[in-house]
Request: fold
Amino acid sequence: MMQPKPPYRLHVALVFVAASVAIGCGKTPPASFRLNMVHATKTATPESGLEKPWATWAGNRQQQVATILEAMFGTPDSPVVLPETGLDAAKLQLAAGPVRSDIVGRKNGLYREHCGHCHGISGDGMGPTAAFLNPYPRDYRPGKFKFKSTWRDGKPTHDDLVHLLRQGVAGTSMPSFALLPPAQIDALAEYVRYLSLRGETELALFAYAEQELAGDEQLPTTKEFLVDEMLAPIVEKWQAANEGQIPIAAVPAGVDFSLPANDFANRESVARGKVLFHGDGGCVKCHGVTALGDGQANDYDDWNKTVVAMSGEVADGLQAAHAVSTGDLSPEKLADYRARSEWLHAFADVIEGDALRPRTIPPRNLRLGVYRGGRRPLDIYRRLYTGINGAPMPGIGPSGPGGKGSVADAEIWHIVNYVRSLPYEFDGELGADRPMVAKDRF
Amino acid sequence: MKRFCPLLAVGIVLQAIALQAIVLSGSSRAEEWGAIQGKFVFGGAVPTAGELKTDKDVEVCGKHKLLAEELVVGADKGIANVVVFVRDKGVKVNPDAAKAAAGAKVVLDNKNCRFEPHVTFVQVGQQLVVKNSDTVGHNSNIATIKNAPSNNLIPAGGDTTITFGSDEAVPAQVTCNIHPWMKSWLLVRPNPYAAVSAADGTFVIKDVPVGEVELQFWHEKAGYIGEMTLGGKVEKAAKGRKKVAVAAGGTNLGDIVLDPTLFQK
Reply:
């Protein structure tokens, strides 16, 4: 669509005029939460026999969810704190809203000062800088967190979030906020929880609509439904975090973490760890025989996977739609076909405009000595025990209390020791820098 | 703060059961159970399944010629792996069926670098043994929604046992991150009233209480099955739901013909 362009200066002037008309002078529009468009569209597969155009039907549902969420959680500038969420309103107040000072000169708007540019106003991990970062900033809305002390599926404890904020995430763009006063870190951790609760409630509402509502049916707006049925199970999981911490086995004899892993005192433990790394631990599958992270994995994490799966489905769907000869369809089938095409095109737009381009998650190179979840032996133990929630990394400990893992709890410490040894060359008898070959295993 | 009151909840559930018992005992006798059966038939030419790219652990997985299983149609047009279950929440459960299910373990095997079976049905509280019969390690990443999702590494020859505390509205996907072509589904229901169609497209749900129940039909490629042809008549089924009258001698739905366009997704 080429149109004759006005002269450059006029063009610029027009933009300024248009902009000042649109937003007024010096006034920024109030911040608002964005809907989770990938899920809103994913759960709005057109049913057969829709009476309205698909866009109207899906738009109504999105509007309804947005209204409910605003009633339950408020806006970025003024959060609503339902007592059932168990959130601390005073802490949220410190973190929410634009950056400003309150009446006693205390800084407010901490989230937008420190976090929003990467994690986004809505906590969707799509702030203005997100597209330039690798890995992408965490999207809090599914309520999944990687680095924590709880069972794989469990929520992080408040202390886990505080610890992560203080440490930062090594090897990523997430810095340490250790210089902030504890009260501010506390407030930020609480705000992350708020954004997660909101995001998870949103997912639950869309999922409910997909599974339970037919045609034009609306979501119930009773307290019983919204609070007791949708919100409460999510809050319960967060509140159970403290009781959901994984057991930490006693460190077995022959493991001395006060000494370097390649110290003579650790040699048997490291050798045992190496056998497990290549054997029952299964680590070698993805991290490779050399532990350079060059195994065979090239999978996506859960956040990216949703977009990947949908991109595939939409591409296939559009291809199939193009192959249909519409002239042969009955009027009823034609209406269904149109609704479906409308949905597929809308989805293609959402994937393009409301999601970051999916990236695979390469297994870590364990020879670098950079550990995203922390470098203490305890941190590595936890990563091995439960795996990494949301990432392809499986756990080698049991999947829940009383279960059986593929490696006994205490033995995991030997793998920790071996992993600790990997960034260093052995000068001893082991020669562990040599990749293990088949004959070493038998 | 309003808190969840377990006693009250138990009270309500007990009351509901009692009420139902009263209502049901008036109209039906205890022995009245019937089976629901039928056969899913593909309403078009038999599609050919594509071959999967087995590019990991090639020395083990590469020797099996694996085919895509997202739509399996037999030579006689029977559609395998269609999920059917009774949707009604408070449906009365046949005590014998419940007892049989409680003792049985359900096995999901990682075998020949694929999941066996492709769609697994497990009841709430029942033990699911996920095992690995291969000579390479697998992980089974179970993406349940209401239940805690899990992802355990299962070494060659190993196994792990999982139980589920809550039912799932739709089957959850089970994948192996090490071998990304490996995909299967897990249906978790609160009662024995669910079935997965066999290789010839047939299914049977036994011992359903006589009367009307609401079935839900689902298939991994089609999603909720919104339209089916029964006895030559096209029927709409919003969200794949369909009410069926169960007779004492059992109800046979006959051939359930599914249009190929349902699977073009």
